Amino acid sequence: MAVRIRKGDTVVVIAGRDKGRSGEVIEVHRDSGRALVRGVNMVKRHQRQSTTQEGGIISKEAPIHLSNIALADPKDGKPTRVGFKYVGKGDDRKKVRIAKRSGVEING
Fold it and tell me: What fold, for 10-99?
């Protein structure tokens, strides 16, 4: 299946407690269908002190399901679906992602 959301994309949360917030994708876990988004779905974790890290309660991002996020349109920043099209001719053909909302090509 084609990758619709990649590392480095700006996404908008469309469902859940962080609905409406946006952030950059840090990593995508394709096997579980989840993504880590900077500043979204923050959880508190108790961490034991070690030689390299201090102990205490830390906040960090938890993975969010791909169905609950949508790519932000490069034109206006609103959620959009992702489509694909081929650009170029012959052997130079390249498959690119496009925003369904505005038709703009998505970088990456």
Answer: SH3 type barrels. (2.30.30)
Instruction: Give the mean pLDDT of the chain.
Output: 94
pLDDT value of position 107: 83
Instruction: Measure Cα distances from 61 to 50, 65, 85, 86 in Å.
Output: 21, 13, 33, 35
Q: Whole-prediction pTM value?
A: 0.86
Tell me the torsion sign for CA atoms 89, 90, 96, 99.
positive
DSSP element (H, E) containing 45 = strand 42-47
**3-class state of residue 64 by DSSP:** strand
28, 7 contact by CB (below 8 A)? yes
Tokens 């990649």, located at residue? 6
Averaged pLDDT, 13-27: 96
